[in-house]
Design goal:
The chain is built from 10 helices and 7 strands. The longest helix has 20 residues. It is α/β, with parallel strands linked by helices. It has a 7-stranded parallel β-sheet with strand order 1-2-3-4-5-6-7, with helices on both faces.
Length: 250
């Protein structure tokens, strides 16, 4: 969806720090190249739950298949990139139970991979960018069991009662431009302190308008809405949110 104008999209977001997140071997290398090419792009490297990739396959422009034997090799490669200071976070990683209701063996494999990556992040004191869909309670349980500190829950879809656990652990939720038309994300912004919020796109989805391709420049609108909900100045909101990012990645 961005192959034809990716450079232009990034230029339109020249005042935004873009965290481009890998999800498998192919995309990890792609985001690493973007980091080398653009000053406002940093990268996060990780291995997404495999069944979720199959579920979302049509939305990606890169191959999403990878063999089991590649996982060990890929984690070694990610660790090498971390040592070279090429990645600021581990992610996107997590759990997705949409298609795993009757597949406990696959769910267990995804959990094992998730935990391995959490421990890699802890080893190097890096934040994790976490995907969770229909698995919110289990994800939060694992994060607590692993004593994770630097956590970004991206586009969190869990119920309101789970936000208390997020708040108590000092974890962060990243909010997409969908905030402008989503009561769920507006609820998250109201419930969490602004010191526990970041912005995101989840490009090409979760944009300002239904069916419209989402771009990094749109996070400016998210900041405006967060400022409105919190009753503070837009510049103040932007400064706080950016400082949240700096604290997580330093």
């Amino acid at each position: 969806m961005f192959d034809k104008d990716r450079d232009e999209v990034i230029k339109r977001a020249k005042d935004v720090t873009i965290v481009s997140a890998g999800i498998n071997p192919e995309s990890n290398r792609c985001v690493l190249e973007l980091r080398k090419k653009h000053k406002n792009v940093v990268c996060s490297l990780g291995i997404y739950p495999k069944e979720a990739l199959e579920f979302e396959k049509k939305g990606y422009e890169i191959p999403v298949d990878y063999a089991e034997y590649e996982i060990d090799r890929e984690l070694e490669w990610i660790e090498a990139q971390i040592k070279e200071k090429n990645a600021i976070a581990i992610g996107e990683i997590g759990l997705d139970f949409v298609n795993l209701k009757d597949k406990p063996e696959l769910a267990k494999k995804d959990e094992e991979l998730f935990i391995r990556q959490l421990r890699l992040a802890k080893k190097y004191k890096l934040p994790v960018i976490v995907h969770t869909r229909k698995a919110e309670e289990r994800v939060l349980e694992i994060l607590e069991n692993e004593s994770m500190k630097k956590v970004v829950l991206h586009a969190f879809g869990g119920k309101k009662s789970l936000l208390q656990k997020i708040k108590e652990n000092g974890w962060t939720c990243s909010i997409p431009p969908l905030l402008l038309r989503s009561s769920h994300f507006q609820m998250i912004v109201k419930e969490l302190p602004i010191t526990q919020l970041l912005t995101e796109t989840d490009s090409p989805y979760l944009g300002l308008e239904r069916g419209e391709r989402n771009e990094p420049k749109n996070v400016k609108e998210t900041v405006k809405k967060i400022a409105e909900i919190k009753g503070i100045n837009e510049d103040e909101a932007e400064m706080i949110i950016y400082n949240n990012f700096i604290k997580l990645t330093s």
